[in-house]
Each structure stands twice: as C-alpha cells, then as structure tokens.
C-alpha cells in the first residue's frame, strides 16, 4: 500500500487516540489544529496557558473547547514547564509548542528536572507526501542542527529510523546528499557520506540502508539513476530519507518543496523522550494537523522500543 498521510492517520486510529500537552495554548492556529485533530480521532489535548485568553481566542474562531482539559497558568515560562512535565511524567504522549518563542520552548524540552532529554542530540524530521514521488520522503535535518558533524549525522539517522518505522517503512533507505555522487577529498561532505555508508555496511549503524554520497536526482528519481548508469547503487531513485549536509541545504530544499509543489507535510523534533511538535507560525493548518498525526504514530512506536 502506498504510504501517505492518509495511511498515517489510519494507523493512528488503529493504535488509539493519543494525548498532546500544548505549551502556552492561547494561539488561534494551534487551537484550530488540536480541535481538528480531536475531531479526526488523532489526539486529545491538554491546554496549558492563560485560560481566559484561551477561551476568548477559541470563541473568536468558533472552536468548541468542550471536553478539553485546561490548566490555567498565565506565566509562559511556568506554563511551558507544567506542560512538558505532563509529557515527562507519561501523562501525555507528545508535547507541542503554542504561543511561546522557540528558545524558551526548547529550554523546557531540555529542562534537567522535568524535560524530555534522553542523552541523544535532538534533530528535526520533516515528512513529505509529494505528487509524482511514490514514497514518503523524510528530510533531515532542515531546521535544528546547523552544521552536523559525522557523529551528529549518525545520531540524526538513529533519530529518524523510528519515525520511518512508525510510518510503515521497516528498513529505510538513507541517502546522505552531496552535489556529486562520488567521493572527492576536496568535498568533505562526500567523504563523510562514504564513511556513513561504511559504518552501515559494517553494522555500526543498523536498522537502515545507507548509500552515499548521492546527488538529489539519484536519490529520488529512478529515471535519473538509470540514465546515469547507477545500477550498482543500493539506492536508485528510491531513497526514503534525505540526509542533508547542513541546515542551509536542508532548509532551501524544504522551502522549495513547500512553496513550489502541491505537497503535504508534517514535522517533529526527535531524540526526545516523546515526540515534540515544533511547527512554525507560517506552517499551514493542515501541516500542523499532519504534525500531530505524525507525532502520534511515532509516540506509539517509541513505546514499543522501551
């Protein structure tokens, strides 16, 4: 069966409705998204923030808060700590950013007492459903790690594998991307891509197939792979994971897809105790709902690994 966001939402319904804690929930876009997620049977929500403002905003956008738990905490920092503690204590399955700046939101995620640290570095995964591409594409890291080292890239791959598994991809194909598909000592990115491939081949990275360096066309276009004679590669236009050399390459590709194609996408932060939904204010309503659905299936997958 073709994997897409409909299949992800169907999988959520199989494993049961999840629950998300929203940090500083007095945000119209987030309230709309969690309301829709509840209607679709994806997730219930605990709304932490200024209750008066939450109710005023909900009324202004015709969102019915009946059945939602609201925890009143007008101070944004205190609200974020109360919300993340719910995830830390296992009372909710995921954690979502509301009307709080990213810096303070991440401080709550990393809080030593009530945060969601696991000992692994955090990384960002964005999942795309793109017309004309058969498989879901997992882009990483396009928003969090700026200039990942070789060790960082190993951790990014390890963080991404459970996301792929949650979406029904058992042995994902990971393409460490570069401008070329051959190793060039003057291009360190290609050297690191080859090292990641070696590590996978020798069992130092497990649960996936790594083949790099690969140019973007060889990673996602079977015809390009055929024309370039890449018949000896483990990935021939059928990559699941696009591993970017740095945040510039990842972010540019991410925004090109979002603004130039009729795609669907959802994004989460990984390497945490539970999935963290860190959407941008510019993200669409549908992207926010998809991100909640993505976090829900990943939350279920992480429970299997405990």
What does this molecule look like?
The protein has helices spanning 5-15, 28-39, 51-60, 76-88, 102-109, 150-166, 188-201, 216-220, 222-227, 247-260, 285-304; strands spanning 18-23, 43-49, 69-72, 94-97, 123-129, 137-140, 173-176, 209-210, 241-243, 264-270, 276-277. It is of the alpha/beta class. It has 2 domains: 5-118 and 272-304, 3-Layer(aba) Sandwich (Rossmann fold), CATH 3.40.50.10950; 123-260, Isopropylmalate Dehydrogenase. Strands 8-7-9-6-5-10 form a 6-stranded mixed β-sheet, sandwiched between helices. Strands 3-2-1-4-11 form a 5-stranded parallel β-sheet, sandwiched between helices. A hairpin with a 7-residue loop joins β5 and β6 (137-140). The two termini are 28 Å apart. The model has no long low-confidence stretch (mean pLDDT 94).
Question: Could you give a short description of this structure?
Answer:
The protein has 306 residues and is α/β, with parallel strands linked by helices. It is 42% helix and 16% strand.
Number of strands: 11
CATH topology of the largest domain: Rossmann fold
- Which CATH architecture of the largest domain? 3-Layer(aba) Sandwich
Shape: elongated
- CA radius of gyration is 20 Å
Give the end-to-end Cα distance, rounded to a whole number of Å. Answer: 28 Å
Please tell me the overall pLDDT: 94
Strand content: 15-25%
Instruction: State the order of secondary-structure elements, H for helix, E for strand.
Output: HEHEHEHEHEEHEHEHHEHEEH
Largest sheet, strands/sense/barrel: 6 strands, mixed
The level of helicity is 40-55%
Which regions are unreliable across 5 or more consecutive residues at pLDDT < 50?
A: none
Number of helices: 11
CATH class of the largest domain: Alpha Beta
Q: What strand line-up does the widest sheet have?
A: 8-7-9-6-5-10
Q: How many structural domains?
A: 2
